[in-house]
Amino acid sequence: MKREHRVLGADMTKINLGRLGIWRPWNELDPGLAEDVEDLGYGTIWIGGSPRGDLKIAERLLAATDRIVIATGIVNMWATPAEEVAASFHRLEDAYPGRFLLGVGIGHPETTGEYRSPYETMVRYLDRLDAEKVPVERRVLAALGPRVLRLSAERAAGAHPYLTTPEHTRRARETVGPGAILAPDQKVVLGAGPEEARALAREKIGFYFRLRNYVSNWKRLGFTDEDVAGEGSDAIIDALVAHGDAAAVTARLSAHLEAGADHVAVQVLTAEQGGDPRPALRAIAETLPLR
């Protein structure tokens, strides 16, 4: 059933993400899940996995809900021209004012054949979004290192760091300053023992240990060559993926908030592809106040 849509206030450039949201690949999101996530009290749904520039998936999620923010985490700058995603932004803003946040990023050099001059490409892309009148306050950048974090504070509302730790959040807050949005993701495995959780984590994130931008970021945080070898040491896996009972998982989410995050995007990892995240999200919502 289509819900009534509420205008969230006179200043549509301001957006409230809430303390916690969820991050999920675009092909594992549907309107029914969006309704349930909203009913649990989460503030934002981040559409992961480089959603298409037409943002039809965001439109479907917005149509099914009445208050939750829908954000992209992220639209890939190489895959989608700025003009295309800007047109999608304005279409969504006209229909659902104040409820969409555009996350954009550069992706990975190992997976993008055209990857070159990444910082300059980001600057040019943001210039084009400016020309298409996408408000600075309604876009965030995927950012890990200090230079792009600074860019996210100067040319966007802030940063959406991916696959990081509370220590990264602390350093990122120092870099972006007090006014910028800082919305890291946090992967979680709820209810599994350490060995089972680590095995699942390695299955889901082992790929990232072959991507130099992530490896470089982890080394900046103090992890060693041994930690980042193969599919990661137990120490780095435990740092990147929170596991255990609801109290242990929410303690990690709280650590990000205490380190300076405005919002944390929770990605529930499950053994089966596309597994139902609702039980874990419900347990988290019952343990850590979402508002």
Describe the structure.
The structure is a single chain. The protein has helices at residues 31-40, 56-64, 82-95, 118-131, 146-155, 166-176, 194-205, 212-220, 225-228, 234-240, 246-259, 278-287, and strands at residues 20-25, 44-48, 69-72, 75-76, 100-105, 139-141, 158-159, 181-182, 185-190, 241-244, 264-268. The protein has 291 residues and is of the alpha/beta class. It has one domain (20-287): TIM Barrel (Alpha-Beta Barrel). Helix 1 (31-40) links the parallel strand 1 (20-25) and strand 2 (44-48). Helix 1 runs parallel beside helix 12 and helix 11 packs across helix 12. The chain starts with 19 loop residues before the first strand and ends with a helix. Residues 33-112 form the Luciferase-like domain. One of its GO terms (molecular function) is oxidoreductase activity, acting on paired donors, with incorporation or reduction of molecular oxygen. InterPro entries: Bact_Lucif_Oxidored, Lucif-like_OxRdatse_MSMEG_4141, Luciferase-like_dom, Luciferase-like_sf. Pfam families: Bac_luciferase.
How is the secondary structure organized here?
Layout (H helix, E strand, L loop, with lengths): L19 E6 L5 H10 L3 E5 L7 H9 L4 E4 L2 E2 L5 H14 L4 E6 L12 H14 L7 E3 L4 H10 L2 E2 L6 H11 L4 E2 L2 E6 L3 H12 L6 H9 L4 H4 L5 H7 E4 L1 H14 L4 E5 L9 H10 L4
Parallel strand pairs: 1-2, 1-11, 2-3, 3-5, 4-5, 5-6, 6-7, 7-8, 9-10, 9-11
**Could you say which structural class the secondary elements and strand pairing correspond to?**
alpha/beta
Uncertain regions spanning at least 5 consecutive residues: 1-12
For the sheet with most strands, the description reads: 11 strands, parallel
| Terminus-to-terminus distance | 26 Å
